[in-house]
Amino acid sequence: MKATNMLTEALPTKRREKDREEVIESIYHDWDEALSRSDVEALLKLYAHDAVLESPLVSHLCAKERGICSGHEELRPFFEMLRERKPPVRQHYRKTYFTDGKTVIWEYPRETPKGEQMDFAEAMEINDDGLIQHHNVYWGWFGVGVLQRDEYRKDEESRGKSQESKRGEKPGKEIEGYTYGASEVGKSSVSLKELEQLKQTVTLTDEDVHQLRLTGDLLEGQTDAIIDTWREIIGNTPHLAYYFTDPSGKPDESYKAKGEGAL
To answer: Phi, psi (5° rounding) for residue 82?
Structure first.
């Protein structure tokens, strides 16, 4: 009889532990997904109203002596700044998380299968309501370098933030030698000597040029397939894909259409 009572009492505890595991798993996935989409509202829903976030980036972006955001009223403008200023090298590769049921920790390592990304360790305390109560962000040396180079504050044109207004426009006035949509050929900013040096750098020989010209007839009817392959490469390469999306992170269909028209 006593053993039966002990088993009955243990069942709610195991159920609570299982529920807690699901909460932690949800935070792990939902937080990263919301951040990758730059979805401010989705991020805020994961934090308690009196949550605290600590990160050097708070001091850097918000001109605060202490790198702390407290409550939704401070978290919202911080997340909005991240949405507008997040550099391309801020990617989201990770492997797993560690938790004791109350705190969840995971790493964004510098090295990824597709190159380098900003390196962080995220540590979040999850309250009884399943919300983030306290969030600490610990930075690696590569991420610190991004702050030192002020990549979160670079002007819009240099970081591509003005994509929405600039995509689809004829860039002839912005790029020397580029006369998109015009019949004349502009003068290149690269001299013939520099061109030869570039060819040497990539080991491009006269034979390579000859062979490339021979492939013209073979590839003429495969332009669409080549474009599709290249776009797949772009989509799988974060620092390239960044420049083919609009400010919300979605593919820029207008830019895509104008690119097709140029071929």
So the answer is: -60, -40
